[in-house]
Design goal:
Length: 256
Amino acid sequence: MSERAKQRAKVTFEGVSKSFDQRGGILDVLEDIDLTVADGEFVCLLGPSGCGKSTLLNIVGGFERPTAGRVTIDGVEVEGPDARRVFVFQEYGIFPWASAWDNIALGLRHLPRSEREEIVQRTIDMVGLSGFESAYPMELSGGMKQRVEVARALAVSPDVIYMDEPFGALDSLTRLTMRSEIIRIWQQERNTILFVTHDVDESIQIADRIVVFTPRPGRVAEIVEVGLEHPRDLGSPEYGEIKNRLYELLGVRHVI
Ligand SMILES: Nc1ncnc2c1ncn2[C@@H]1O[C@H](COP(=O)(O)OP(=O)(O)OP(=O)(O)O)[C@@H](O)[C@H]1O
Ligand SMILES: [Mg+2]
């Protein structure tokens, strides 16, 4: 039995398909997705624009219903959003009128003040925003705003985190930093993470496994096991091999 098979299944997709009615026609977006994500696993969903990645996250997040098939978390079918699971989008999710501290504390209003303060401080430290507690989003850089977004998600101790191209708006250097930060935090917290990207390098740098989708209607083309220790050597032959395989699956030649 493989190591993964011994781990507990956290999220399962069984024969998930999704079609939308669009101006009288039917648009098939996802077709027969089967996938099991282990507890504490970091999985990237990689595929071309429009193949249904965000739709799949919306389905597992409980915001959309599949047309066919089902999704379970801890063996329970997903039927709507659940506060134990959070989304991280690009930076636009944070409130401009609230300080970094207040943005992060938003999901903790039900907790006693002392507990709330302890959690906010801990997550602020975790994402490297100490000293910026009272800053407003307009006073923060893009990368710092994204840290607020990540901290707000972590503050509620989610068991599953859905990330939809969370670093897409950042410059390439900040993206690199944020990737290693998210890995450091994940190694500490061990949440299950489903991370959407269409960036091949990003997926190899962070994921345990990469689910590669076909163009719409999105089907699973292949699931690629990364199998490299963190921190990863981006110049290693193994890295290059995985990269070639992913480009091949995506039907792109990257050799010039
Ligand atoms: N609520 C909706 N109603 C109708 N069509 C939708 C809806 N949501 C998504 N779609 C369609 O489903 C397809 C997949 O969209 P989705 O946003 O899931 O793609 P994606 O893989 O996340 O793309 P990108 O990488 O560009 O973000 C698109 O053609 C889109 O027009
Ligand atoms: Mg998308």
